[in-house]
Amino acid sequence: MEVTYDWGIIRCVFGFCAGMAVHRLLNGRPGLAAAARRRPTVMTLIELATVAGIGLFVHHAGTGRLSLLAPYVFALSVFVFALEGGAVSRALRSPLPVLVGTLSYSIYMIHWLIVKGVEHVVRAVDRITVTMMNPIVEMYGEPMRVWGPVPWQSDLIGLAVLLLVIAVSFVSYHTLERPARRAIRAWAEKRHGRRFAVEDPKGAP
What we know:
8 helices, 2 strands
């Protein structure tokens, strides 16, 4: 969707409120998840429709005012998948998606640094070879430079960047995020004189 700071504070408030609403709904009605698991076929269809709906929304929302609805669209998807009633939810509980989910905060914090670093490297090579970047696609009405003289090479570079982001995030999670979380938890428990029942995600690396 290519939206960062544009309308950022509004989407931030919307997202927080939508997230809290989903949290309260799920916690206040625990029977919803049990009911969903009794209807796996129906929930699978709902999950597939949700995935398709998200794809269509992202494709059409762009950077316009429609993007302000993104927090509610994604809150609905969180609600659907939190019920864990369909085949897509079961697939998301497999080791690889659990790993990526566990690393999600590190990925969020690190990915842009790696993307920009690779972009600078590609631009440096392009100044020498004049073959790495070509304005051959248009996105949201603006020319978009892709990496590589042909689109499939851009896809390969993008895949390599994705794998690099996950690898660096794995290291960051174990050396920075997890130790920091445990240290802060220990400090809070000592300060408040009680133990907090917050554990690492099930299946986390």
